[in-house]
Design brief:
Elements: E1 5-11, H1 18-31, E2 35-40, H2 43-46, H3 55-61, H4 68-73, H5 79-92, E3 95-100, H6 103-111, E4 116-119, H7 127-136, E5 139-143, H8 149-161, E6 169-174, H9 188-197, E7 200-205, H10 211-219, E8 223-227, H11 245-261, H12 278-281, E9 284-287, E10 302-305, H13 316-319
Parallel strand pairs: 1-2, 1-8, 2-3, 4-5, 5-6, 6-7, 7-8
Antiparallel strand pairs: 9-10
Helix pairs in contact: 1-5, 1-11, 6-7, 7-8, 10-11
Length: 338
């Protein structure tokens, strides 16, 4: 079975502080994820000065006075900081990843050596952005928050026409609300995407807790992306929908366990670990009372008890009515004369 790729989304939960960003990398390493992901953008290229904050951003930052540009400016990482984080990831032996939110940032991530591009939900209808991403990257992960199947189809077409094989494309089911209400997750949509487009699918989660990513893996997700933070009480637009360190570790452990439990061959048969318990847990036909040679076996003098190393109770009807060929004491295993 293909290993599930786990992306720990640090995003902008560093609040523009390089030291917090490094601590987030440490947490991701400790949790055992495959990638730690940040967000790469130039605020002025991403939003206009007229762009308002989303309701969840206002609620999570507790600031209704600033606009998106003002908020994002405080969360922006410089190129120097990016280079520092890439080096730190190498030291910690974890893969650095980031999402570009504008054209210049796509080019910059390519310069940093990234071969995989992550398309955020908000850019899935951005034709110039998609075209550029398709021409400079060889592998793509597409988040589909707020999307229809038609939106996904149109975006997917751009990458396929650019020569990217479907085997190099993953589409993540996603809901762009922070946190996402459980009733809005619609996890079966992930399976619809897989059936419709024939690509690898995954799930980018914004719900509270770890249950939904685990369920997604059980349903066949090959990529899991989840926001995490040092502390949900910190300021920032995404903190409240993020896992704290112990929760991230628990999610990774659960995902790896789910990988194991769904990796079997599908044949129902005793496993190696349980074979030793067959004799202990199953029953045999035994003497219910002392039985003398020549007595007829009946429901009055035989019964079933553990261990299961004698005649199977499934042969009960074949034993009833037979004649005892030797004496049996109570609880002795019953054997038939051949």
């Amino acid at each position: 079975m293909q290993k599930v790729i786990i992306i720990a989304e640090a995003g902008v939960n560093h609040n523009g502080d390089i030291n917090i960003a490094k601590k987030l990398i440490d947490v991701a390493v400790e949790a055992g994820v495959d990638y730690v992901k940040f967000q790469t953008f130039k605020s002025e290229n991403l939003v206009s000065k007229l762009a308002k904050k989303a309701t969840y951003q206002i609620e999570n930052t507790k600031d209704a006075t600033e606009n998106q540009l003002q908020m994002l400016k405080k969360l922006e990482l410089s190129h120097e900081q990016h280079n520092e984080l890439v080096c730190y990831c190498k030291q910690k032996n974890i893969s650095f990843f980031s999402t570009a939110f504008d054209l210049d940032s796509l080019s910059y991530l390519k310069e940093l050596g990234l071969t995989i591009v992550k398309i955020p939900s908000g850019e899935i209808t951005n034709l110039p952005y998609l075209r550029k991403a398709a021409t400079i990257f060889s592998e793509v992960i597409i988040s589909s928050g707020m999307s229809t199947m038609e939106d996904i189809k149109n975006a997917l077409k751009i990458f396929i026409e650019a020569g990217i094989s479907k085997s190099k494309i993953s589409i993540l089911h996603c809901n762009t609300e922070y946190p996402t209400p459980m009733q809005d997750v619609n996890l079966y949509a992930m399976l619809s995407i897989q059936k419709e487009f024939g690509v690898s699918v995954g799930y980018s989660d914004h719900t509270l807790g770890i249950e939904v990513p685990i369920a997604a893996v059980a349903l066949g997700a090959k990529v899991i992306e989840k926001h995490f933070t040092l502390d949900r009480s910190l300021s920032g637009p995404d903190q409240l929908a993020s896992l704290e360190p112990a929760e991230l570790k628990a999610m990774v452990r659960a995902v790896r366990n789910i990988e194991l439990v769904i990796s079997g061959n599908g044949i129902k048969q005793p496993s190696e670990s349980e074979k030793k318990n067959i004799e202990i847990a199953r029953k045999s036909i035994v003497a219910k009372t002392d039985i003398l040679k020549g007595e007829v076996f009946s429901e009055n003098n035989i019964t079933t008890k553990r261990p299961g190393n004698g005649i199977s109770p499934m042969l009960w009807d074949e034993v009833i009515g037979r004649v005892a060929h030797i004496n049996f004491n109570a609880d002795d295993l019953i054997y038939l004369d051949k």
